[in-house]
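Throughout this review, each integer encodes one residue's backbone shape. One record appears below.

===
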Amino acid sequence: MPIVSIKARQIIDSRGNPTVEVDLVTEHGLFRAAVPSGASTGEFEALELRDGGAAYLGKGVQKAIANVNTIIAPALIGKDETKQSELDKYMVETLDGTKNEWGWCKKKLGANAILAVSLALCKAGAAARKVPLWQHIADLAGNPSPCMPVPSFNIINGGSHAGNKLAMQEFMVLPVGAKSFSEAMQIGCEVYHNLKKVIKNRYGLDATAVGDEGGFAPNIQENSEALDLIEEAIKISGYTDKVRLGMDVAASEFYTGKEDARYNLDFKNSNAAEKDKIPADQLIALYESFITKCKGTSPIVSIEDPFDQEDWESWIKFTAKVGKDVQIVGDDLTVTNPTRVARAIEKKACNALLLKVNQIGSVTESIEAVTAAKKAGWAIMTSHRSGETEDSFIADLAVGLSAGQIKTGAPCRSERLAKYNQLLRIEEELGASVRYAGNDFRNVEKLGKYKSF
């Protein structure tokens, strides 16, 4: 049935900043979608259109909203909501039409304007076809084998997501040994609560405040100390054999630039000592020490953005050294951009893609990036952003694309739990035959096909 109306509005995300929400109406009902926003953003992400000026410290999105209401809406009313690829391409290539060396950059309308409509359109398409959203996404991607992802819980926050001294941004637990997503949730919650006790006992109650993504943010500086705290919590919880560790370094945030080409492990301190500014080779050695340290207890299986988004040489070297045992995840490096993904595949710079729909700005382009990454044998991790809303779209996306992994914060803060809770509902809906990625999170094709799909 055709689109009847599209209306955008400004709402507030989990970090107190404005973002775009869209209501798309068809004969089947109203379909609402909201766009997230990142704190640590890749240089090559599609343009997020902000207003500038005094209101909301320049972060208003009235320009993006006007673009939806006055340009996109009139052009899409009367169109078939099931034509996701056709309408996404129409918005991106015709209504916007701006390009840079990495493809369609959405400079005219804003990726936040286009994506809000694209997400709402996808929900409307599912309703028109009378299928769950995850199944509609699977059909759009040509994926016959949806599965439940392993949750990657970010339980210690640092970097640009917290006001502590930690340079590295996220320290995560992955319950790969669980038998189901619901068991993985139980494991994650128990480890999280035990981590709070560990931090409180070691540093005091005031050290248990949380960061943007719900993880604890103790005021420590040594990144290895964060790993120690988590390992202790895992041991207390009794899940050493079921949980593995992951990190999002977000190294572009503390790269000193091409001329100096060092990584400042005390970048939040304006008077950081020279000893804390280290070259890439020394940073590689530090990562290797983390991997060795945790190998006998809860091994590290995932390291995201270990180097700057343009430090290709270090990416290539590190992936060649440890990529067999550890997935090296491209986020700022690849920005869910099919052209950047192709470059990383060619250079063998990493072996996993972080999927963030707002980095590229449409559902169709996100699917294209995932398809290219999977063809190269990469793992896929679906991801939220630090500035989130209650929209749970990425939960269905992870299942429909058989991503194998999802990270959407700690089991804390309702904008994070909105996604995890939706995954619990999906698992219940799918029943006993549903597959959980588990230890095959890097290669979900090993699981075989979902028989009831």
